Sequence to fold (481 residues):
Amino acid sequence: MAEFRNRKSVTALVVALVAFSVVAMVVDRRSAPGGPDRELSGWTDAILDIAAPVQQMIAFPFDLTREAWRHYASLLAASDTNTALRARLVALEEENLQLREALIASGRLARIAEIRADFEVPMLPSALVGVDPSPWFRSVLVDRGREHGVRSGMPVISEHGLVGLVTATSARAAKAMLVLDRQSAVDGIIQRSRSRGIVRGRGTSEMDFEFVARGSDVRVGDVVISSGLGGVYPKGIRIGEVASVSDPGSALMQSATLVPAVDFGRLEQVFVMLRRGPTMEMLYASEGEGLLAETASERSGP
Amino acid sequence: MKRALALLAIGALAPMIQGAMGTFIPLHYCPDLGLLLVVGLGLCWRSTAGGLVLSAMLGFVADLLSGSLLGQHMLLRIFAFGAARACSRQLNLRGVIPRAIFVSALSAVSALGTGALTAFFGAGPGVDAQMLRELVPHALINGAFAPLGVWFVERIANWLSEAEAGQQLLALRPRSRLS
Fold:
């Protein structure tokens, strides 16, 4: 009798736990990627807050070894790199001068100076402290959270290009989905030919550039940047480079494989753009404009 | 209770350690520490209800740190615990090789479950060729580390139960004096 009662209670527990997890998934999905419900609170918030320093602590000895090796390796190549960079600097200074001249000639410089403030987005430097524990998802944990002005839906970039999007935040940490994740899709254009497509994560170190109209000019080595049309990421951020173009055959669309601009294996520091795109802003309308405006003004200074 | 809390703390640390490891090693070549702990619970934890709750909690912590839907790992961990508990009653999972084979298979099923749930909730493409390619080394690595994972849970459980038994013995002394 006792065994029967025990069995019944275990069955009830299984049903309750399964129901809880299914409801959690439905609620999470309904709140949209990076929706308002992803701002964690209470003990869930605490777990993410604890995870960031713990992961930093665990990674510290590995980081130290890796950094020492990298430093040594970079010292070996320092002289050659220095010469190459000097040459590049001269070329870029020359190009910069020519572009300025062209802008002044077209009378656009003054107008650009006026609207510059609108385009300047406050950036928050943040250290990457851990990656997704599951091999089937590509996200990272960064050491800045709500206390620093980070909110779900804010783009994350590095000096090399687009990294991803903040999907959940706690007080002192945030989770960001990488552009490599299978759930990620970014509206992109080829910088040279302006051909449009969708950059979709594969879950590996490469991405797909899909839905490119057949006959569009896509070549190996072309740089793909964000188009800004999705309303999630700002326009003009480098996403990657075309590594191969597939033969469309009889299909209406062609696709290509991209190598990301960011080396995700070596990523250590990122910048959170403290302003959401219009689509994300719409999703977060319930949160209120005041907070974002306040954070932006705090970051940009007086 | 102590055992449960200790394992919960270790289990909560597992995805954090894995996340830190992932910055150096591709995650497909890292053992899934959370899954190994849950299998260990399924094979050697005394209370089924306690093990179930622990497994669910470990899954939920993994959900918080991962890019998955909230509840996705939780559901899969409940399934993994149930499978380990049921199979330990029907099959001989005491040896190193049976445990490794069982965990490899469970790891593969769990990965397919992740893909299926992601597709079902429309959060991604689900199971594709790429995932299948990565699933094989991941399942093999998990299998290779399974005996170690189960042994670890067994040791923790035994160590803490011995400590509890020692305390109970001490608590009995005054009663015997009174009688």
Remarks:
- Residues 33-37, 288-302 of chain A have pLDDT under 50 and may be disordered.
- The longest helix of chain A spans residues 42-76.
- Chain A touches chain B through 52 residues (CB under 8 Å).
